[in-house]
Amino acid sequence: MSFLDTLLGKKKEASVLGVDIGSSSLKVVQLRKEHGKAVLETYGELALGPYAGAVAGAATALSAEEIAASLADLLREAKVTTKSAGVSIPFARSLLVLVELPYRDDPKEQKTIIELEARKYIPVPVSEVQLDWFVVPPPAEGPGAKPSGKPEKMEVFLIAVHNDELALLQRSVAAAGLTSSFFEIEIFSTIRAVVDEPVKPVMVLDIGAATTKTYIVERGVVALSHSIAMGSHDITRAIAVSENIPLARAEALKKQEGLAAADGPAGAEHSPELVFSRIFAGARRVLMQFEQSRKEAVTKVVLTGGGGVTRELGTYAKNLFSIDVVVADPFKKCEAPVFMRPILEEIGPEFAVAVGLALRKLAEL
Ligand SMILES: Nc1ncnc2c1ncn2[C@@H]1O[C@H](COP(=O)(O)OP(=O)(O)OP(=O)(O)O)[C@@H](O)[C@H]1O
Ligand SMILES: [Mg+2]
User: Fold this and answer.
1) 307 CB under 6 A from ligand 1?
2) 124 phi, psi to nearest 5 deg
3) How far apart are CA 240 and CA 227, in angstroms?
């Protein structure tokens, strides 16, 4: 705050925090709004493995108390100064389905029909979940476009999160001393942070520890989502087996050398490349399913999540997919000192969810 602002009694513009509670690590990003821009104040990451008796980089399932304790540690370490947060909901704990329903114009009628239909797709009583939805706009042109006139059907994306899951998250962040004004399923936070293409379909690959989330975004909304039961910790395991070293050493080697770790002849059967090729094969199936059903081409793949930080992965993926592949750079949406740019670009994929949450929170101010 400048001296002049103080004299004029202007309030210091508030800072906000994005909190990503991942299965293997916590991530926080603190932003401040200045002259309408998002300014990066601090960020930090903490591996949860050690809090669960596992190695750093492994996926965990912690209690609210354990999450709160580790989050409090991270807030201290990262010198976070605000309490006002937006928090992620894990994709794995949410239900997302695309359903086709009879078209309704009137928002009230839409609500009634959607709530009725939702019961068919949600495996628990609707009173036990928080239900949300949006109507997917039909393609404007091309082979998938709806004929003009009043459509008969509408595609609706249903989103449900169990009340218990929200309660666990609420307890965790409150016990760490934060106040949260919203909880958002992580894929929506990522989209805000890393997808800029307004029209054409883009595939996002969020390579986490135990799973890889893959989803296709078209005109800003999710058109398809799928979870692949393999992630970056499988790379660590492969390196540990091929090099015959402990997991903790393999984790360090993976971060140092990326795809080149364990690439000797003995490592061929357990090479990082082999694991990634399986993950990408799963992603290609999702891509083809989308293209066949929508009759539209996916134009770009965005790599994100901690696994997206892997050295040389971008180049490898570019050779594998015959379309444009980019490694996510969410921090480019924030102002930061020039000398920090190289490091922010490098670690960016890991922080996509946290940046997306902080950006939404900033928009609330
Ligand atoms: N520099 C790096 N090179 C390679 N892998 C890395 C690097 N940094 C982190 N990882 C790996 O990324 C994984 C964690 O990714 P991320 O933080 O996105 O997972 P998460 O958010 O906890 O998991 P999820 O989203 O599935 O709940 C770990 O297995 C970690 O070893
Ligand atoms: Mg994650």
Assistant:
1) yes
2) -125, 165
3) 25
| Tokens 């493995």, located at residue | 49
- What pLDDT digit, counting tens, does each position of 221-246 carry? 888 899 999 999 999 999 999 999 99
CA of 360 to the centre of ligand 1 (A): 23
How many angstroms does the Cα of residue 315 sit away from the middle of ligand 2?
Answer: 22
Evaluate whether 121 touches 99 at the Cβ level (below 8 Å).
yes
pTM value is 0.92
> Of all protein residues, whose CA lies closest to atom 15 belonging to ligand 1?
306
The highest-level CATH class for domain 93-163 is alpha beta
- Which atom number of ligand 1 is nearest to the Cα of residue 27? 17
For residue 187, give the nearest of 327, 334, 88 by alpha carbon. Answer: 88
Per the CB < 8 A criterion, the answer to whether 331 and 345 are in contact is yes
Question: What are the domain boundaries of the chain?
Answer: 93-163
Residue 267, pLDDT score: 57
Q: Is 234 touching ligand 1 by the criterion CB < 6 Å? A: no
Distance separating alpha carbons of residues 176 and 174, to the nearest angstrom: 5
> Which position has the token pair 């939702």?
118
User: Ligand 2 centre from 208 Cα, in Å?
Assistant: 5
Distance CA 185, CA 225 (A): 12
Phi-psi region of 305 (alpha: psi -120 to 50; beta: other; left: phi over 0): left
DSSP one-letter code for 53: T
pLDDT at 5 over 50: no
Q: Please check whether residue 306 is in contact with residue 207, taking contact to mean a CB–CB distance below 8 angstroms.
A: yes
Is the Cβ–Cβ distance between 59 and 23 less than 8 Å?
Answer: yes
- Asked if residue 254 has its Cβ within 6 Å of ligand 1, the reply is yes
Q: Give the pLDDT confidence score for residue 40 in this predicted structure.
A: 98
Residue 1 has pLDDT above 50, yes or no: no
User: What pLDDT is stored for residue 33 in this prediction?
Assistant: 95
**Which residue is closest in CA terms to ligand 1's atom 21?**
22
356 lines ligand 1 (CB under 6 A): no
